[in-house]
Amino acid sequence: MKKSTMLVGLAASAALALSACSGNATGSSQASAGPGGPAADGGTVQVLANAAFSHLDPARGFDGGVNNFYRLIYRTLTTQGAAPGAEGTKIVPDLATTTGTPSDGGKTWTFTLKDKLFFETGAPITSADVKWGVSRAWDPELGIGSPYAKQIIAAPASYQGPYKSGDLSTIETPDAKTIVFHLKKPYADFGSVVAQNTFVPVPKGQGAGNSLDSKPIASGPYKISEYKPGATLKLVRNDKWDKSSDAVRAAKPDGFQWTFGLDPATIDERMIAGQGTDADAIAGTVQAATVARIQTPQLKQRTMSGLGGCTTYMGLNTTKKPLNDLKVRQAIEYAVNKQTVRDAVGGSTLADIATSIQPPTVAGRVDYDLYPSTDHKGDLDKARALLTEAGYQGGFTLTLDSRTQPKMQAMAVAIQQALEPLKITVKINPIDTSTYYEVIGTPSQQKDMAITGWCPDWPSGATFLPPLFDGRNITAKGNSNLSQLNDKGVNAKIDEIANLTDVTAANKAYGELDKQIMALAPVVPLLYEKVLMLVGSNIAGAYLHDGFSGGIDLVSVGLADAGK
């Protein structure tokens, strides 16, 4: 699934939940040199984080924070560029020499690997290793991350990955440098699909069980030298990475050091003070209480801000009573006071109010509001009328899944208070941030509602609505369709749009589909959150990357003075 994190501590710890995440928040980034000018070679970048990464295994992780991190240790056939603004969301070759060659009317795609590609062990990266890594996406236990490989590449219905089912014949490796994918149907954006984490090469025969979660096998410029889950993670240079084969990763620092489990308020205090190694630090979005304190000229020089390119929303589980009743879901749409939800995250400085599923940064998005209320404070009269029609005027109880992160808990309380006048009792179910997406992405563990979020994986409407609302893609694990909506009309429209060859026309059609879906009220759009970050005084080369929930692009950031 794809989750938006809003980058509290640059880990899967903040504002959104489902989404792997890339956004395309146009105009959100600073100049490419960022604070401190261009980065120097050497030194260690410190990262202060509230929560640990969801997974180090690229087949499992799928949120904005960990996707950004993966680019330091892993490579894929293609990847997003390294630049602020629209340049950063362009798909460029990575392990492959090009963004792919289609044939057979777009149902077959061929990629050729570059020279000088090696794992951290010194072993060459071959097409068989790429195939092995991709095949892991079908494993029911491991393949809980990005869903696109399983959805688009042809495979037998019974296939369960290389460890259980062996070879996948629909991916061919005629030689060590060539890999050929056979798709279920033509897919014009397949060159973007292979930038997903599931296309990380894994040495053939390796990676079973939890092995990559504890010890990744690096193909990028850094490798893990020390990892204490939930506490610290240290990266050092991977001396087997050849810069001449990689036009994307600047990899200026000698290493990175993550410190997990820090209180968000403590992170803000340390970043403001900027003492010692904190001058070399980056972190996530500042807390609401800190916003007023960073308005001084000195601190503003170290501030970066912009849209995150994601939508924070509340999923309504349409398989649970009484949420299986459309009128009940519509009543909740009207009842939620989005002003108090925005206040919970810090007000207009840190978020805009959402009315559609797709954020303003998605091409073709339509601006509309099917459930309007004065100042977005909710319309309890309309909500009561709908509940009366549905026969639920006496109220009921719902359970709301939320992360154990202060901002998320504050949002949950705002929802709870908004529904209370309707005699709807909301029980808040706190779930640890590091396991949150996995829990809510498992339908058997999912409760009635969940506060989460989504960011596009590449700049296309195809990566927003189909993953969230195509009922044919609901899975037992790694499920991104939190509402479990399986509507024939929506599914048919998704197929119709997928057959369009004009990307502009397809994106326009997705904008209209947004409204069609919202008429069914499977989710309550809440916020389009913003990123507001304070970096250390010795940080350089920093810019906000539109493809990673608006976070600082880790492959380009470094230190202004590596000798300090």
Per CATH, which architecture of the domain at 53-258? 3-Layer(aba) Sandwich
How would you describe the oligomerization state of the chains in this entry? single chain
Query: Which CATH class of the domain at 53-258 applies here?
Result: Alpha Beta
Q: How big a fraction of the residues is strand? A: 15-25%
Any idea of the CATH topology of the domain at 53-258?
Answer: D-Maltodextrin-Binding Protein, domain 2
Structural class: alpha+beta
* Average predicted confidence as pLDDT: 91
Helical run tally:
16
- Largest sheet properties: 7 strands, mixed
End-to-end Cα distance, whole Å, is: 40 Å
The outline comes out as globular
| Proportion of residues in helical segments | 10-25%
| Rounded radius of gyration (Å) | 22 Å
The count of β-strands is 20
Structure description:
This protein is 24% helix and 18% strand. It has a domain at 53-258: D-Maltodextrin-Binding Protein, domain 2, CATH 3.40.190.10. The two termini are 40 Å apart. It has 564 residues and is α+β, with helices and mostly antiparallel strands. α9 (326-335) runs antiparallel to α11 (380-390), α10 (338-345) runs antiparallel to α12 and α15 runs antiparallel to α16 (503-518). β8 (222-228) and β9 form a beta hairpin. Strands 12, 13, 14, 15, 16, 17 and 18 form a seven-stranded mixed beta sheet that branches. A five-stranded mixed beta sheet has the order 8-9-10-1-11, with no helix packed on it. The protein has helices at 64-73, 127-135, 148-152, 162-165, 190-193, 211-214, 264-273, 297-300, 326-335, 338-345, 380-390, 406-419, 433-440, 465-469, 488-498, 503-518, and strands spanning 44-48, 78-80, 91-93, 101-103, 108-112, 171-175, 178-182, 222-228, 232-237, 255-259, 281-282, 303-307, 311-316, 351-353, 396-403, 424-431, 449-454, 523-534, 539-540, 558-559. The protein is globular, with a radius of gyration of 22 Å.
